[in-house]
Design brief:
Elements: H1 2-6, H2 8-37, E1 40-53, E2 59-62, E3 67-75, H3 76-85, E4 89-93, E5 100-105, E6 107-109, E7 116-120, E8 123-137, E9 139-142, E10 151-159, E11 162-168, H4 169-173, E12 177-182, E13 192-201, E14 211-213, E15 216-225, E16 227-237, E17 244-251, E18 255-260, H5 262-267, E19 271-276, E20 284-289, E21 296-299, E22 303-312, H6 320-323, H7 332-335, E23 338-351, E24 357-363, E25 368-376, H8 377-381, E26 389-393, E27 401-406, E28 408-410, E29 416-419, E30 423-430
Parallel strand pairs: 1-4, 9-12, 16-19, 23-26
Antiparallel strand pairs: 1-3, 2-8, 3-7, 4-6, 5-8, 8-11, 10-15, 11-14, 12-13, 13-15, 16-18, 17-22, 18-21, 20-22, 23-25, 24-30, 25-29, 26-28, 27-30
InterPro entries: c-di-AMP_regulator, Filamin/ABP280_repeat-like, YbbR
Protein name: YbbR-like domain-containing protein YbbR
Pfam family, one: YbbR
C-alpha cells in the first residue's frame, strides 16, 4: 500500500477521478438551476382595466365591464415579469363597428409571445349608441319635514333653471326627472339660498349615467308662516244716530290672507269684521283696523276700507211764525251749486297681483289717469287726491302676458267720479 501511495501514477489517477466527480457534481447543479429557471408557471391577474377604443366624440358605449381577469401561463421568469411590470394593455376595439349591439373579443398587446394568455370574459356584449345633448328644466326639490312648525314653502327658484344633459340617446329618452334637492337641519323658518347637485332620474327614480352641465345650481327657497285666504264678513254693531238710516255697509276687500298656527288657520272659515255704526252721520269710506283671533299672528293687510251708504232724514218744517228768524238756517248743501273738478295724474293701483308676478303699464304708459269729480261745490272743493283710490283688479292673473282690465274708482259718495279711461293695459312678467 505504501508503495502504491508512493507511485506517482497512482496519485495522478486518483486526482483525475476526484476531478471527474467534482465536474459531474457541478454540472448536475447547473442543469438543475436551468430546469427551475425554465419551469412553467400559471398566474391569474384580477382587476385588469379594460380599454375601450371608439369615437367618444359622437358615440357612447354601454355594456363593457370596467375590468377583466387575465390568466397567463408560461416560463416562470416571463410570468413574473408580466405580473411585475404590467406594461401590457387589454382592450376591445369598436372603431369599425356600426350602431347597435355587438359581441366583441377581448384583446391584449405587449405580452411575450411565449406566454399563453386568456381573458375572463373572453368576449363582451356592448351597445353602441349615438351621443346626444338636450336641455332640461331643473325642478327644485325639498323635504318639507325640515320646516319648523307652522311654516311652509312659499316659493322656490333655481338659477340657472335649465341644464344641458349629454348621454346615449336611449338614456336621454328615458329621463323623467331632473331635480336639484336642497337639504338642511330641521326647524327651518327663514328663506335661504343653497347650492345643490343636479340629479337625472328615470320614472322609477333610478339615477341615470349622463353628463350634466352645469352639475351644480343655486336653489332659493322662500319660507313663510302657514296661511290661507278667508272671506271677510262685515257685521254691524251699535245703533245709528236718530234720523240716520244705514242702507249698506260694504268693502271692496272681499277676502284676506291670515297667518298663524296651523290649527288656528285651519279652523278659521271667515274673518268677522265688527263695524260700529253708532257714530255714522253721513255716507263715506273709512279704514277699519282688523282684530286678530286667537292663534292668528298677522294679516296681509292690517286695515280694510269700509263704505257706508246712509240716508239722513231732514227735520220737519217749522211754523211760519217761528221760521222768520231762521230763514237763513237753510242746509248749505241745498244752496250749493253743482261743480266739476279735475284731479290730474292719479296713480292706478294694481290690486291682487300674486307676489311671483311683476307688472308694468302699457296703457297708460305712466300708470296714471285724470279724474273728474262732480257734486256740490262745497263738498267737491274739500276733496283731495288722497280721498280717492283708482285701481285695477289683477287677482285672477295666473300667467305672464298682456291684460286689459277695467278701472275702478273708490271715492266719497258726495261726488260723481269719472276717469278719462275706462280700462288700463298691463304687461305681467315673472318677478
Amino acid at each position: 500500500m505504501d508503495k502504491m501511495m508512493d507511485n506517482p501514477w497512482f496519485l495522478r489517477i486518483v486526482s483525475l477521478l476526484f476531478a471527474v466527480l467534482l465536474f459531474i457534481s457541478v454540472q448536475n447543479e447547473l442543469e438543475g438551476n436551468e430546469i427551475n429557471a425554465a419551469g412553467t408557471s400559471v398566474e391569474s391577474i384580477p382587476n385588469v382595466p379594460l380599454q375601450v377604443y371608439y369615437d367618444d366624440d359622437n358615440l357612447v358605449v354601454t355594456g363593457a365591464p370596467q375590468t377583466v381577469t387575465l390568466k397567463i401561463e408560461g416560463p416562470s421568469n416571463l410570468v413574473l415579469s408580466a405580473q411585475t411590470m404590467q406594461d401590457y394593455t387589454v382592450f376591445i376595439d369598436l372603431r369599425e363597428l356600426t350602431l347597435g349591439q355587438h359581441e366583441v373579443e377581448v384583446q391584449y398587446e405587449n405580452l411575450p409571445e411565449r406566454l399563453e394568455v386568456r381573458t375572463d370574459p373572453q368576449t363582451v356584449t356592448v351597445n353602441i349608441e349615438e351621443l346626444i345633448t338636450e336641455e332640461f328644466t331643473v325642478e327644485p326639490d325639498m323635504n318639507e319635514r325640515l320646516l319648523a312648525d307652522n311654516y311652509v314653502v312659499k316659493s322656490t327658484n333655481v338659477e340657472p333653471n335649465r341644464v344641458s344633459v349629454t348621454g346615449a340617446r336611449s338614456v336621454i329618452e328615458a329621463i323623467s326627472f331632473v331635480k336639484a334637492t336642497v337639504s338642511g337641519e330641521e326647524g327651518l323658518d327663514e328663506s335661504f339660498t343653497q347650492e345643490a347637485r343636479v340629479r337625472v332620474l328615470d320614472r322609477e327614480l333610478n339615477k341615470l349615467d349622463v353628463i350634466v352641465e352645469p352639475e351644480v345650481v343655486n336653489v332659493t327657497v322662500e319660507i313663510e308662516r302657514y296661511s290661507k285666504e278667508v272671506p271677510i264678513v262685515i257685521e254691524q254693531e251699535g245703533t245709528p244716530p236718530n234720523g240716520v238710516t244705514i242702507n249698506s255697509v260694504t268693502s271692496t276687500v272681499s277676502s284676506i290672507r291670515v297667518y298663524g298656527t296651523r290649527t288656528a288657520v285651519d279652523a278659521l272659515e271667515a274673518l268677522e269684521v265688527n263695524v260700529d255704526v253708532s257714530e255714522i252721520q253721513e255716507s263715506g269710506t273709512v279704514d277699519i283696523e282688523l282684530d286678530k283671533p286667537e292663534g292668528i299672528s298677522q294679516f296681509n293687510q292690517e286695515t280694510i276700507p269700509v263704505t257706508f251708504d246712509v240716508t239722513v232724514e231732514q227735520p220737519e218744517a217749522e211754523p211760519e211764525g217761528e221760521a222768520s228768524n231762521d230763514a237763513a238756517a237753510v242746509d248749505p248743501e241745498q244752496e250749493d251749486e253743482t261743480t266739476t273738478r279735475t284731479f290730474e295724474n292719479v296713480p292706478i293701483v294694481v290690486a291682487g297681483l300674486a307676489e311671483q308676478w311683476s307688472s308694468t303699464f302699457a296703457i297708460p304708459s305712466n300708470g296714471v289717469v285724470n279724474l273728474t269729480a262732480t257734486g256740490p261745490e262745497s263738498k267737491v272743493n274739500d276733496l283731495t287726491v288722497s280721498d280717492v283710490r283708482v285701481s285695477i283688479d289683477a287677482s285672477a292673473i295666473s300667467a305672464a302676458g298682456e291684460y286689459t282690465l277695467p278701472i275702478a274708482i273708490e271715492g266719497p259718495d258726495t261726488a260723481t267720479w269719472v276717469a278719462e279711461l275706462d280700462q288700463a293695459t298691463i304687461v305681467v312678467e315673472q318677478a
